Amino acid sequence: MAVITLDPSWLADCLALDRSALQGLWTKEQWRRELEDPRRLCLGWTEAKTLLGVACGWLVADELHITLIAVDPSVRRRGHGKRLLSALLQQARQQGAIHATLEVGTNNLAAIALYANGGFQSAGTRLKYYSDGSDALIQWCRINASNS
């Protein structure tokens, strides 16, 4: 597993992974902004030059806001999401972040377990946060050596 920093040359690969893992959550323009903006971290997991996972977030002052973690459905449940989360937290810590936050669907039990394992705790709920009307948990953690 090689974790790399993604740049705009990975746009088509990110779109393809988004479609397979997240049913096309982000548009091409959203991905382009994510890959071009220097305040945003976007890491990819590759094997044999194939993008199999991504972890993205925004750095705002001393905080990382995690916007997306996705792993190709064919290789899930093997710890790759955990490694991507850890790499993202580590890179954010190296750039001065001391906290991380995210929103996760209340029905996304696999992601909730991933984040709990990474030290995240729920801080509240955003009602009807998603376009389908479902709620999101607001989660946060302090970034330290044990989770990054």
* CATH architect. name: 3-Layer(aba) Sandwich
Uncertain runs are: none
Order of helices and strands: EHHEEEHEHEE
The overall pLDDT average reads: 93
Question: Can you give a write-up of this model?
Answer:
The protein has 148 residues and is α+β, with helices and mostly antiparallel strands. The protein has one domain (2-142): Gcn5-related N-acetyltransferase (GNAT) (Aminopeptidase), CATH 3.40.630. The chain is 30% helix and 35% strand. It contains four helices and seven strands; from the N terminus they run E-H-H-E-E-E-H-E-H-E-E. The protein has a seven-stranded mixed sheet with strand order 1-2-3-4-5-7-6, with helices on both faces. A hairpin with a 2-residue loop joins strand 2 and strand 3 (50-60). Helix 1 (11-22) crosses helix 2.
Set down the secondary structure blueprint.
Blueprint: E1 2-5, H1 11-22, H2 28-36, E2 40-47, E3 50-60, E4 63-71, H3 80-94, E5 99-105, H4 109-117, E6 121-126, E7 136-142
Parallel strand pairs: 4-5
Antiparallel strand pairs: 1-2, 2-3, 3-4, 5-7, 6-7
Helix pairs in contact: 1-2
Task: Describe the structure using short key phrases.
35% strand; 7 strands; globular; 148 residues; Aminopeptidase
Summarize the structure.
The chain has 148 residues and is α+β, with helices and mostly antiparallel strands. Helices cover 30% and strands 35% of the residues. The chain has a single domain (2-142), classed as 3-Layer(aba) Sandwich (Aminopeptidase).
